[in-house]
DNA sequence: GAACCTGCACTTGAATCGTC
DNA sequence: GACGATTCAAGTGCAGGTTC
């Protein structure tokens, strides 16, 4: 696994990783990358946009002879990427990425890890380096909320220049030695552990895990019971750790029984922690205060009350199924967004990364699964997923996005697929392989890595009555939006969206393109029919088209 | 105006699945 | 069986609406 040293998972930029003197164009005196004289001011294809500058990060021919790193894919190199460096901001995202990638290379990684964890890490870098400084709405929000049409908008972000530096850290909470037990920010790194423990402890005290159990064991109080509690009558119910009780019908804040329950919970939780419970992993001591625990419980009560309500009044199976499908679609949008960002990061396409950082998963086009036709699926989840084929999804495109932007995104998808198929990053390898295999009359693609392939998304017309829900991002360059769609907007809405009056350059450096090289950028997504992949076992033949000498025997890799 | 409800989106970890 | 990628479901937070 990767070394996470220096990869801050908290907010703010990670501490810079000092590179070795002379390595990757760095000097011992400064962390600022030096640009070799022979590259300074040298006109390259696509120069003027840092997109073009990423050229040379891949492929052999355009790579500088003096490049100290023989593997351009594993360590995107400032030397090979003068446009990226020329942006100059030492705290910029680009620098963060270089540090990250260089450190990975120094660890002897032949190529970047492709695990989800890595991608999350990289996505965090993007969040910290680009997105977070502009997230001014609420500093307790860990992620940028969706750019909802009605929601507060982010300020304009110049995707054409370097990201702004991260904001200064918040001042310390203490004043004159006074220990402030104020509830910690939702960003507190130990908070999720506390939440886990609080959830566990609630299960322990309430003896309930499910909504149905809550419904059965915590029935609402009767009027006379409420009266008895308020009058402190001898027969009033008193909540104790042994007889823990919550009234989910009464107000959590105002109900006397619930106030009693909250107090008992907090006391008992602290006792349990003192007694050694929840110590693996330990809860951060600065969170072990009544206020904090109570606040965490209050938040969890939202979930519990929701669970109770759902148990009491179950949603219709139709509604439930609908929600599940929508939830899965959202989840797949997340995967899609993650893979696109990963692809651009991996290739050092800083400008594209910055553009993507203005988006969120909700802005991705969704996809639909095919419906179950025969009901023969025996696995419940597969049936619920309404899939006919495990890896075929129908793209539900969004109406606001320009064709250019869509093509750009689909190209990153194709690149991602290329990277998946060939970790060495040989451009266009999927297409080359497919062409070669087709000529050979073979039906199976060569795949270098284990695991599921990225899902195959196909463009098919939607049903006539299909309605598409979508979220529109703001503050993007003009040519990200479809002109017709923009024309239909009210003027005030266009103003509100803060559309940048510049056109964005969607091009990719020539030597980092893959499927784009073909006339149809989606060709290698579309030309593989599932039947071909899943053909008769006897007819299949595995084949790997090696590109490097040492890889020619690469079948075993 | 506070508390609560509801819908939506994101995060996280487990499940699933395909390949080696 | 191990590994790795995707999918899924549960948990959670936020925002807007509703109720008191």
From TrEMBL:
Residues 1-10 have a biased composition (Polar residues). The lineage of its organism: Eukaryota, Fungi, Dikarya, Basidiomycota, Agaricomycotina. Residues 1-86, 529-557 are annotated as: Disordered. It comes from Antrodiella citrinella. Residues 76-86 have a biased composition (Low complexity). Residues 49-59 have a biased composition (Gly residues). Residues 12-21 have a biased composition (Pro residues). This is Uncharacterized protein.
């Amino acid at each position: 696994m990767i070394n996470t040293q220096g990869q801050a998972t908290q907010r703010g930029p990670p501490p810079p990783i000092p590179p070795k003197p002379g390595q990757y164009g760095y000097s011992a005196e400064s962390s600022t990358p030096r640009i070799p004289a022979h590259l300074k001011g040298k006109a390259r294809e696509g120069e003027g946009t840092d997109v073009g500058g990423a050229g040379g990060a891949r492929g052999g021919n355009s790579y500088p002879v003096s490049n100290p790193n023989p593997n351009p894919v594993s360590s995107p190199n400032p030397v090979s990427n003068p446009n990226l460096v020329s942006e100059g901001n030492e705290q910029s995202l680009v620098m963060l990425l270089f540090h990250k990638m260089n450190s990975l290379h120094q660890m002897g990684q032949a190529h970047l890890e492709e695990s989800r964890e890595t991608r999350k890490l990289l996505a965090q870098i993007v969040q910290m380096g680009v997105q977070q400084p502009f997230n001014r709405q609420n500093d307790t929000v860990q992620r940028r909320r969706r750019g909802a049409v009605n929601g507060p908008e982010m300020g304009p972000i110049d995707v054409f220049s370097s990201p702004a530096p991260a904001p200064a850290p918040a001042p310390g909470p203490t004043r004159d030695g006074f220990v402030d037990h104020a509830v910690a920010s939702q960003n507190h790194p130990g908070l999720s552990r506390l939440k886990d423990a609080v959830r566990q402890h609630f299960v322990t005290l309430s003896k309930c895990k499910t909504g149905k159990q809550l419904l059965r064991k915590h029935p609402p109080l009767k009027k006379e019971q409420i009266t008895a509690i308020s009058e402190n009558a001898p027969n009033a119910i008193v909540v104790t750790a042994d007889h823990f009780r919550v009234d989910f019908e009464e107000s959590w804040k105002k109900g006397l029984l619930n106030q009693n329950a909250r107090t008992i919970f907090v006391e008992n939780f602290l006792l349990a922690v003192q007694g050694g419970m929840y110590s693996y992993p330990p809860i951060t001591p600065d969170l072990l205060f009544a206020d904090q625990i109570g606040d965490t419980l209050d938040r969890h009560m939202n979930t519990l009350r929701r669970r109770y309500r759902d148990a009491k009044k179950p949603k219709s199976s139709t509604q439930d199924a609908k929600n599940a499908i929508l939830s899965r679609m959202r989840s797949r949008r997340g995967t899609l967004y993650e893979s696109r960002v990963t692809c651009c990061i991996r290739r050092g396409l800083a400008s594209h990364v910055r553009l993507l950082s203005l988006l969120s998963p909700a802005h991705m086009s969704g996809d639909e699964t095919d419906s179950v036709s025969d009901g023969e699926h025996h696995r419940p989840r597969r049936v619920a997923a309404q899939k006919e084929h495990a890896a075929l999804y129908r793209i539900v495109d969004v109406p606001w996005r320009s064709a250019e932007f869509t093509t750009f995104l689909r190209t990153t998808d194709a690149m991602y697929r290329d990277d998946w198929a060939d970790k060495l990053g040989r451009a266009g390898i999927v297409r080359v392989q497919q062409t070669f295999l087709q000529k050979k009359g073979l039906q199976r693609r060569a795949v270098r890595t284990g695991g599921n392939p990225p899902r195959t998304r196909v463009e098919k017309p939607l049903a006539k009555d299909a309605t598409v829900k979508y979220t529109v991002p703001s503050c993007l360059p003009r040519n990200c939006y479809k002109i017709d769609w923009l024309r239909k907007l009210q003027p005030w809405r266009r103003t509100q969206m803060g559309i940048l009056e510049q056109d964005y350059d969607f091009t990719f450096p020539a030597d980092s393109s893959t499927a784009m090289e073909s006339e149809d950028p989606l060709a290698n997504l579309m030309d593989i029919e599932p039947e071909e992949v899943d053909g008769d076992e006897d007819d299949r033949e595995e084949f790997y088209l090696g590109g490097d000498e040492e890889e020619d025997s690469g079948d075993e890799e």
